[in-house]
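Consortium newsletter contribution from the modelling node. Members have asked for a concrete example of what our holo predictions look like. Here is one, prepared for the adenosine-5'-triphosphate complex that several groups have been discussing at recent meetings.
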Amino acid sequence: MIGIKEILLVVNPIAGDIDKKEMVEDFKAIAARINTEVFIYHTKGERDIEHVKNIAKERKPVRIVAAGGDGTIKLVAEAIRGMDITLGIIPSGSANALALNLNLPKNLEEQINVALGEHYLNIDLISLNDELGLHMSDLGINAELIDNYESSSFRGKFGYLLQTIPTLIQSKYPFEFIIETENCTTTENGVLLAIANASKYGTGAKVNPKGKLDDGIFEILIFKNLDILEIMKTLRNEVNLSPEFLKILQLKKARISCKEPVAFQIDGEYRGEVNTVDVKILSEKIKIAVPEKD
Ligand SMILES: Nc1ncnc2c1ncn2[C@@H]1O[C@H](COP(=O)(O)OP(=O)(O)OP(=O)(O)O)[C@@H](O)[C@H]1O
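And here is the predicted structure:
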């Protein structure tokens, strides 16, 4: 472990509907063993990026750790853009897709040791309509499902499952996506277009076998309008997708347009209906603490 003086721990108190007290106590105990102080910021749900950015600038922690789900990691990543600081993750949300893609351990003590350890991955950042994306964003049926999930009172996998049928009934799929790249323009019909930095959705479904978080490119995945129930099952139930369902493009920059507005989500956070998404790989990266490779 490195000689850390002060760690900034950003805790989302509502993430995953989990009480974080025990986690915070364990975190402080492990930090004390390496002679470090812990400064805790509890997210408020409003202006958190700004607050975390100001605290990080003022206190100059040598490590920042996000305890929450994918939304919390994303907001901390936004806050520390341009700062040379490694981000540790304690996965404690209802969706922990990035943690899954980074092979973070399941055990809390191991998670804390990894979050404070010296191994890191320098992962790519994707700009989507000027907002940061770290792992998986999409247009279409999955974003519609996330919208329905966010407006319902049920959380976790069961919450998603409950929303599947209403989403399918209400959806206007298939969608027509126009994809402009530096070399060509193509039109594709599909139920879902994903913009992927990672290989897996949070359920464990490995939809993007070519996805590497640090390879300097992203993939566009177009899920064809074949068997929609099969696709929904695949996204939610850890079944690997057969390649005939999907077309994959590897890119650094693209514009995706739809004639009619289509539901859009970034890293599991619903962003409303849009007609256009401008996507590019940013030149900056972010260091995320990961386990030592075997
Ligand atoms: N104190 C708070 N009160 C209400 N909302 C909050 C609070 N702190 C953070 N948030 C919101 O929590 C969301 C991020 O949650 P995150 O993804 O980390 O956890 P999650 O359990 O996976 O969430 P979800 O179940 O909604 O997907 C952000 O939208 C953020 O604005």
